[in-house]
Design goal:
alpha/beta; Rossmann fold; six-stranded mixed β-sheet; two-stranded antiparallel sheet
Length: about 260
C-alpha cells in the first residue's frame, strides 16, 4: 500500500472500519493570494498595452488635420510617436499639445498646430516625408519643434547617424528647436543614445538651431521614472513623462519669447 493514500481503521470487533480520505497538501493562502494578484496585474497590464497600441490610430486621426485656432501663431511639430502623444491619456496631452497651450497662454495669441509627425518615424522619414509636407504648407511657421532619433538608436552606427543628422539639420527651418535623443536608461542602447544625443546637439548648434537637452532632463528624473513617467510599454512617456518633455522644450522656447 502506498503510504499516505488510505488506511483501514479497525472497528470494535477487530473488523476493518472506514477508509480515511487522502491527505492532499493544502495550498498556503498567501501563495494563492500572490498568484491572484499576479494574474490581475497581468490582465491590467495587458489591457494597458492594448489601449496603447490602439492609441496609435487614434492619435494619427486626431493630428491628421490642423488643431487650434487660425489667425495667430503657426506651430509645426516634426518627429515620431512621442510627438503624436502616444502614451498620454489623450493626443492633446502629449508634449506637442502642452507646448501649444503654454504658447497660447504666454503670448495671448491664437495658436494653430500642424503636427506632421508619424509613429515609428526615423530621421530619414522626417527628411523624406515630413519636411516636404512642411514645405507644401506654403506658410512660414512661427515655431518648429523636432524630436526624432529614438527609433534610430537600436541600429545606431556612428557615421551613418551623423550623416542622417546632417541632412536633417541642413533642411530644417532656421531657429527650429531640436531635441537630442531620449534617455535609454542602461546598457548598449543607452551608450548609443548618449552618443546620438551628443551628435544631434552638436549638429543643431553648429547650424544655428536651438538644441533641447531632453536626454539630460530624463536622466535627472532617475530610475524611479520608470514607474512614474512611462506608459505600459516602458518606452513611451505617460502624461507625467510628456510634461517632462514639454518642460525641456519650453525652457528653451520661453527664453526666446
Amino acid at each position: 500500500m502506498a503510504p499516505g493514500l488510505h488506511q483501514e481503521v479497525a472497528g470494535p470487533a477487530g473488523h476493518a472500519g472506514a477508509v480515511t480520505p487522502p491527505r492532499w497538501p493544502r495550498r498556503h493562502p498567501v501563495v494563492a493570494a500572490l498568484v491572484a494578484v499576479v494574474l490581475v496585474l497581468s490582465a491590467v497590464w495587458g489591457l494597458a498595452l492594448l489601449r496603447l497600441a490602439r492609441s496609435v490610430e487614434t492619435a494619427a486621426s486626431y493630428w491628421s488635420e490642423p488643431r487650434g485656432e487660425t489667425g495667430g501663431l503657426l506651430y509645426v511639430a516634426l518627429g515620431d510617436s512621442a510627438a503624436q502623444g502616444i502614451g498620454a491619456s489623450r493626443p492633446d496631452r502629449g508634449y506637442v499639445g502642452l507646448l501649444a497651450d503654454r504658447l497660447r497662454a504666454r503670448t495671448g495669441r491664437p495658436v494653430e498646430v500642424v503636427n506632421l509627425s508619424r509613429s515609428g518615424a526615423r530621421i530619414s522619414d522626417v527628411v523624406q516625408v515630413q519636411l516636404p509636407a512642411l514645405a507644401a504648407l506654403g506658410r512660414t511657421p512661427d515655431l518648429v519643434t523636432v524630436a526624432i532619433g529614438g527609433n534610430d538608436v537600436p541600429t545606431y552606427e556612428a557615421d551613418r547617424f551623423t550623416g542622417s543628422v546632417g541632412e536633417l539639420v541642413d533642411a530644417l527651418p532656421a531657429g527650429s528647436y531640436v531635441a537630442d535623443v531620449p534617455y535609454w536608461m542602461h546598457g548598449r542602447f543607452e551608450r548609443n543614445a548618449q552618443a546620438a544625443a551628443d551628435v544631434m546637439t552638436a549638429a543643431a548648434r553648429e547650424r544655428g538651431m536651438r538644441p533641447v537637452p531632453l536626454h539630460e532632463a530624463q536622466r535627472r528624473a532617475g530610475w524611479s521614472a520608470m514607474l512614474t513617467h512611462f506608459a505600459a510599454d516602458w518606452f513611451h512617456p505617460d502624461d507625467r513623462g510628456h510634461r517632462l518633455w514639454a518642460d525641456a522644450f519650453w525652457r528653451e522656447i520661453e527664453a526666446d519669447l
